[in-house]
Amino acid sequence: MRRFILPLAAACALTAASLVTAFAHSTLESAEVPAGSYKAVVRIPHGCDGQATNTVRIDLPEGFIGAKPMPKVGWQLAVEKGDYAKAYKLHGNDVSSGVKTVTWSGGDLPDDFYDEFVISGTLSAEPGARLAFVVTQLCKNGQVAWNEIAAEGQDPRSLEHPAPFVTIAAASAGGHDHGGAAADTVKAGDLTLSGGWLRAMLPGQPAGGGYITIANGGAAADRLVAVSTPAAGKSEIHSMEMKDNVMVMRPVDGGVEIPAGQTVELKPGGLHLMFMQVTEPFKEGQSLPVTLEFEKAGKVELTLPVKSATGGDGHQH
Ligand SMILES: [Cu+2]
Known about the structure:
The chain has 317 residues and is mostly beta strands. It is 4% helix and 51% strand. Strand 17 and strand 18 form a beta hairpin.
């Protein structure tokens, strides 16, 4: 295994770099995708404290299998292979080893420029799992490491150098459910609500998320205008988007339109229900009453299951 030797100056450069890097983090292009084939596009927004980046090294997360990096003109590409923590099924075969680290070296990416480094592969993890790609940028006299991984329930935005991560989305309708009871499908007028669930919270976690799919089979648009539950003092509908390479979530103004004939998915990493001032953290295995209010369909009462925050790690069976 090849290791990079860092010059002594690296430590000082790191301190200075951290001031700069608070503004733009290395991130992945898509923050939330279903399991299956996945193109990891890692963005490098700046160099090390003003210096050009000449090496980008990415340590791949467990569960990202069959990885193949994309060569880049002007950069040498090297991979390190090794064993996965377990065997996976890939196109009908068992795979237990593959590329674990990718390094593009010998390049020249000035601090003022931006670039993307691409690795294609397959995400094999349960919905809700967060897979972090640890990114290290090396420059002539220093490095920037994006290697902090948020603990369960911790906000990655609170980290100074978060590793870019992707969250596995819930399988779309029709897929079999691994994580426990799914909410029943509920019809309300032209709307069909399905696959609703609440994310289990850690003790002390201030807010929890909820997700559901809403299909409008009618000829007129409807609008989700409010959410409430006796389990939380305050419930809101939130959007989540990348702004200047940082994930930002905020209450949506005027609710969420459910266009005629279309399906709107509230899911991790996107539109979601947000429950604040909870009386008790949502616990896996619980079911909680949630009321959604629509402009036309009116109030719809649901009972939503609470599922593990990470998705199937085997403990819920
Ligand atoms: Cu939110």
